[in-house]
Amino acid sequence: MFAPANIPQRFRDAYARSEQGLIRDVMVKGAWVVLFVSAITNGSVLIRGRSLIEADPTWGLALRLPPLVVSILALAMHYGRFPGSSWSMPMLRLISLSAMWSIFGSLVFAYDQGGSAFRMMTELAILSIFCAALVSLRGVRGCVIPLFLPLSTFVVVMLYQGHPPLELLLKLLSFISATVIAVLVTHVLYHRRIAEFLARQKLNEMSTIDSLTGLMNRRAMTERLDSERARYHRLSHSFAVVLLDLDHFKRVNDNFGHQAGDRVLREVANRLKLHTRQQDCVGRWGGEEFLMLLPDTGEQGAMTAAEKLRTALQQHPFEIGDAPPVSQTGSFGIAIYDGRESASRLVARADQALYMAKECGRNRVVVA
């Protein structure tokens, strides 16, 4: 999925999901609008027996049918739950392109007729330019297919038919003006959407990420615990929580200052992230306590993971600046979800196991 350069790497997955949802929503609404307009237009031709534009019947059909066919196909794929999501953008482009093909194709015939036919088609073309701009969800580069390609094709066809360039330019002045305005509108809307997306992501990050360690905060971890409990009740996949408390951490703050303590906390967070799986969740539970959520993990797997983390803390001293590196160990309490308890009760059992680890001498793993 395309992501602009000003989207930070950490937000790109969220941006891709957001854009994909927006593309699908616009595609469905656009297909319904084009389908409705096509039905009215084709119905009007059938009732009247002829089109307002004098054109060969074959050409008339070729101009009217593509928007109708593409819109029906797009809606069938959407409501038929066609697998995948990458097809939404190509279908949206086809909808825009087929609509513009119909408008500008009709304009070729209306140009020679002049009068009310050309005036009506001009108004429709200007309106369609703005509609195409609104579905150009990737800024100016998104205007290439729905706007610039049909317009340039129209100009080439008219020049090929021998129309004087200056006369053509004067008659197309309204198109050119509308196109410039539509592109500017698209540019503004696109960058405003990006700015609003970044603002939402940063606000969400501030409310769910611990500013010191970069880990999830307590609120975010609580939400993930609730989500994992719901997943357990759907799929019956066991999971474990591991509660870590740093041993004698107060001594670091007392002997070397709070800045040294912050460095230790940041390094602990880095080691926890380094030695856990991608699907595991790691958060700062409070102070010098950290909570790990291990999906699809039983008692033996949780003990193995906790021992790996305990060793990662114990084996390498922590750099704290100018002072000599300090050793830092941790005590771990494990609880496996029993299928009935609340998230708070699950963490409380892990806390009881952690208390036992402290009582038994620290720097060890205990299972509730």
UniProtKB/TrEMBL annotation:
* GGDEF domain boundaries: 237-368
**Its catalytic activity?**
2 GTP = 3',3'-c-di-GMP + 2 diphosphate
Q: Which UniProt keywords apply?
A: Membrane, Transmembrane, Transmembrane helix
Supply the Gene3D superfamilies for this chain: 3.30.70.270
| TM segment ranges | 26-47, 59-79, 91-111, 144-162, 168-190
User: What are its E.C. numbers?
Assistant: 2.7.7.65
Enzyme class name: transferase
Q: Does the keyword Transferase apply?
A: no
- What is this protein identified as? diguanylate cyclase
Tell me which domain of life the UniProt entry assigns to the organism this sequence originates from: Bacteria
Cleaved signal peptide residues: none
Q: Which CDD domains match?
A: GGDEF (cd01949)
Pfam families registered for this protein in UniProt: GGDEF (PF00990)
